[in-house]
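Notebook entry, structure prediction.
Reason for the run: the old model in the group folder had no record of what sequence produced it. Starting over properly, with the input documented here first.
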Amino acid sequence: MGLGDKIGNAAEDMGGKAKEAAGNATDNDRLRAEGQKDQVKADAKKVGESVKDEFKRD
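New structure, fully documented this time:
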């Protein structure tokens, strides 16, 4: 996994957390759900990249 990918995934995760927090603060269900979706996408990318890294080690 490249450093740029790791930074991008972390940024997407942090952005999702910020959206979720803003949704919670403003009682905005759409924004809260969008933030949670962004976090799930970032987590899935992290898992995919981890799998790639494991295959590169062999």
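Summary: Residues 10 and 42 are 7 Å apart (CA to CA).
The old model has been moved to the deprecated folder.
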